Amino acid sequence: VEMKDIFEEPVMDIDSCDAKNPLAVVDYVHNVYAYYRKIESCSSVSTSYTPQQSDINEKMRAVLIDWLVEVHHKFELRDKMLFLTVNITDRFLAQQGVAQKKLQLVGLVTMLLVCKYEEVLVPVVDDLLFISDKAYTRKEVLEIERLMLNTLQFHMLVPTPYVFMRRYLKICSIQQKLELLSFF
Amino acid sequence: MEKYKLGKVIGIGAYGIVHRGLNLETNQIVAIKRFYTFDCKNGVPYTTIQEISMLIEMYHINIVKLLDVISNTKNEWYIIFEYLDLDLEKYMVTYLKDSMEKHTIKYIMHQILSGVMYCHKHRIMHRDLTPDKLLIDLNASVVKIADFGMARAFDFPLRAYSPEVVTTWYRAPEILLGSPVYTTAVDVWSVGCIFAKMLTRQNLFAGASKNEHLRKIFSIMGTPNERTWPGVTSLPYYPAGLPEYYPENLEEFFPDLEPAGVDLLSEMLCMNPARRISAHRALQHAYFKKKKRKEKKEKKMMILDPIEEEKEEEDDDDP
């Protein structure tokens, strides 16, 4: 108990400066982050899921993610959404075998789901079919969408590294330049 | 859907129809929400995704339980909920001829606030709390928050969300005034309005139009100014030329309410959202503290005593 006392004293209350800013929701910030910590373990995937896939490997996943980053930029989506897209793609791939030629489709549909979830209604199915160079049909997109939602059982609201990073950055009271850099 | 039998329609909302239904395997009566599919071209509607992804992780006695999600190849989605036959609106109209018992009101308020606090702690704003979204299980005397069709998960710090939320009479002043951002405090305001409605059976702030509604709020709670609510006069819909109302004494509106209740109500209906009490602090308010002697008598009358049971329930969520 004594040790604890010594350690706790110098902890700065990083939320006190926000007490007057209702947007920081100071009342609940601790609860929400505690909850994030709690569900973090079930919402992240092990780094070595690719061997379970017969048709795709780590390299292909990397190519897919690179492409998603590019698409993400093109649609000017928020940073947070990229993290969520990657998380959902990985969680889906860890549970479902996917053929190599369908891999891009999975990426596309994840992006669609994240946009729907975040109420950014810009890329509609037509846009996605267009950027994939019409490699897939609408029917395929809708089928995979349903499969993904059922596979992930609608667990969409997961904490990503992004939300934790935001909190760490706040603790360090860092400059904006470094903040932007940290999200790479 | 082979597992369930669709029964009569029990509710129609902006995004779907709610049916009464029967689980053919267990003979359990359920509520089945069927979403409209306006747009078959773009797959699952985003409202469906949002509502289900939020409800799926909520486990709380005062929040309606999601039992199952079913979809078919025609891209029709059904959510199966536990069925409760009554909502607070109907309860007030049909079961209570004149006024509600004081301890019943307190007891219902405690449950609503517990549910709201649980949502807020799990970064979810309901954004549309009204008496008809609060379901009542008479047998177990439990109140449950339902219909998360308007709800949203938020992030820190909050960003701007859609202003068209919450049925008008329960809408918080910051939304009415067009504030680009709002917080969990909008839910507390709605609960405050529901509290007032239970006390008098009338809407405290009922106005035919948005402006009329704002005027009504100002005439009771006082016209907000830069001193009571910094920044209020620069909000988009801050009405020019309204008289400077002084805050009324809420006691006069609720003569039967104990002083602690009046105090809690005034804290929940605080105009400035930054100063409005949070659900968490509201639950610790003196209004919910029990008086020692009365307690024993009341206990026998009530089937279930939530005020003692629900001290800390953050730990019962299981993702």
Which class best fits the helix and strand makeup of chain B? alpha+beta
List the strand order in the largest sheet of chain B. 1-2-3-5-4
Shape of chain B: globular
SSE pattern of chain A? HHHHHHHHH
So what's the oligomer here?
A: heterodimer
Question: Can you describe this structure?
Answer:
The complex is a heterodimer of chains A (184) and B (319). Chain A has 184 residues and is mainly alpha-helical. Chain A contains 9 helices and no strands. Helix content of chain B is 32%, strand content 16%. Chain B contains 11 helices and 10 strands. Chain B has a 5-stranded antiparallel beta sheet with strand order 1-2-3-5-4, covered by helices on one side. A 3-stranded antiparallel beta sheet of chain B has the order 6-8-9. In chain B, helix 3 runs antiparallel to helix 5 (185-200). Chain B is globular, with a radius of gyration of 20 Å. The model of chain B is unreliable at 293-319 (pLDDT under 50). Classes of the chains: A mainly alpha (184), B alpha+beta (319). Chains A and B meet through helix 2, helix 5, helix 7 and helix 8 of A and helix 1 of B.
Topology of this structure?
The complex is a heterodimer of chains A (184) and B (319).
Chain A (H helix, E strand, L loop, with lengths): L1 H7 L17 H18 L14 H17 L4 H17 L7 H15 L7 H7 L6 H15 L8 H12 L3 H7 L2
Helix pairs in contact in A: 3-4, 3-5, 4-5, 5-7
Chain B lengths: L3 E9 L3 E8 L4 E8 L10 H10 L10 E6 L5 E6 L3 E2 H8 L6 H20 L2 E2 L8 E4 L4 E4 L6 E2 L19 H4 L8 H16 L9 H12 L28 H4 L5 H10 L10 H5 L8 H10 L4 H4 L10
Antiparallel strand pairs in B: 1-2, 2-3, 3-5, 4-5, 6-8, 7-10, 8-9
Helix pairs in contact in B: 3-5
Provide tags for this entry:
heterodimer, A: 184 residues, mainly alpha, 9 helices, 0% strand, B: 319 residues, alpha+beta, five-stranded antiparallel β-sheet, 10 strands, globular
Can I get a quick summary?
The complex is a heterodimer of chains A (184) and B (319). With 184 residues, chain A is an all-alpha fold.
